[in-house]
Amino acid sequence: MIKVTKIAVLTSGGDSPGMNTALRAVVRTCAYNKIDCIGISRGYQGLINDNFKPLNTRSVRGIINRGGTFLFSARSNAFKTKEGRVRAYENLIKHKVDALIVIGGDGSFTGGLIFQNEFNFPVIGIPGTIDNDLYGTSHTLGYDTALNTVMEAIDKIRDTAISHDRLFFVEVMGRDAGHIALNSGIAVGAQEILIPEENVGIEELIDSLKKSKKAGKTSSIVVVAEGDRTGENVFELAKSVEIEFPNYEIRVSVLGHMQRGGSPSCFDRVLASRMGVKAVESLLKGDSGKMIGFENGNIKLTPLATAIKGKTKIDPELIKVSQIMNT
Ligand code: F6P
C-alpha cells in the first residue's frame, strides 16, 4: 500500500451546488492530516494541460456557500484517448501526486475508473451532479439545492398560471433521470409529472387534465423531465395537448441552467463536507476505486463500477403519492 502524502482534486462534468463545499472539505482534511493538496483546473483537461495549483486552507476560504466550482469544470475529449490519459498520468507523477479525487457525475467516474485501472492510480469519486442518477447514494451533491430552486421557480409560475387560467408545461433537468421532476412535481402540486422511468402516455395525461378541468380547476402545472419522451419534446407535447383543449391557454417554460446554480442548501453543505472528509480518509487508508455515497443518514462507499452502472431507482411510493395528490 503506497503512503499517500499528496492528493489532487478536480471537478468534472456539469457543475452543481456543493462542489465548492466539497473542495473546501477535501483541502481542509488534507491539511488536518498534514498532507499536500493540489487543485486541478478544468477537470481532466486540466490534468492533461498541467493546470496544477497547490491549495491550502486559505485557498478555500469564503466558498462554502458559493455555487459552481472555483476549479472550473469541463468535459474533455482528449481524456477519452489513451494518449491523453498517459499525459495526465505523467503530469501527476511529475508533481509527485499519490491519489486523485474526482468530484463529478457518471461520465467523470467512468473516466476516473478507466484511469485507475490503466495506471493503478488510486481514484475516489465524490458524486457532484444535480441529476441524482448514481447508484449507491440517495443524494448526489447539488440535488437538494436543485430541488429547492425548481420548487421556487414553479411556485412563481403557478402565480401567473392561476392569474391567467393557463396550463403550463415546465421542463426540468435530470438528463435521463426523473428524480428532480418527480420530487419537485410533488412539492408544487403538479397535475401531472412526466418522467422517463414511467411511460405515462399522452392519453393518460389528457384524461388527467380533462378530469381536473371537470373538477373546476382553471389552471394546471405539468412538470416534464427533460429525458421524458411522451412527446418529441416539451413544445411538441404542449402542441398535441392544445389540440384537445382549444380553449385552454397553454404555455411552456424550460427552466434550464438556473437549476445548476445557486448557493448550496444546508443539506448539500453538510453532505459535501462529510463526503470531502471521507474521500481523503479513504485514500489515506488505502481505499480507492470507490464513490463516497450517502444512505440512511450514513456515509458509505460503493465501487465506482457499480455506482456508474446502476441508477437510483424511482421510489414507487413516491409515484403513488403523486397520483393520490392529483385526484
Ligand atoms: O448532468 C447535469 C446536467 O445539468 C443535466 O441535468 C443536463 O441534461 C446536462 O447537464 C446539461 O449539460 P450542458 O451543461 O453541457 O448543457
Structure description:
The chain has two domains: 6-142 and 264-309, 3-Layer(aba) Sandwich (Rossmann fold), CATH 3.40.50.450; 143-260, Phosphofructokinase domain (Rossmann fold, 3-Layer(aba) Sandwich), CATH 3.40.50.460. It has eleven helices and eleven strands. The protein has helices spanning 19-32, 43-49, 82-94, 106-119, 143-163, 179-188, 202-214, 234-244, 266-284, 304-309, 316-325, and strands at residues 6-11, 36-40, 52-55, 99-104, 123-127, 166-172, 192-194, 220-225, 249-254, 290-295, 298-303. A seven-stranded mixed β-sheet has the order 3-2-1-4-5-10-11, with helices on both faces. A four-stranded parallel β-sheet has the order 7-8-6-9, with helices on both faces. Strand 10 (290-295) and strand 11 (298-303) form a beta hairpin. It is elongated and about 70 Å long. The mean pLDDT is 96. Bound molecules: 6-O-phosphono-beta-D-fructofuranose (F6P). Residues 14, 105, 129-131, 173-175, 226, 260 line the site of 6-O-phosphono-beta-D-fructofuranose.
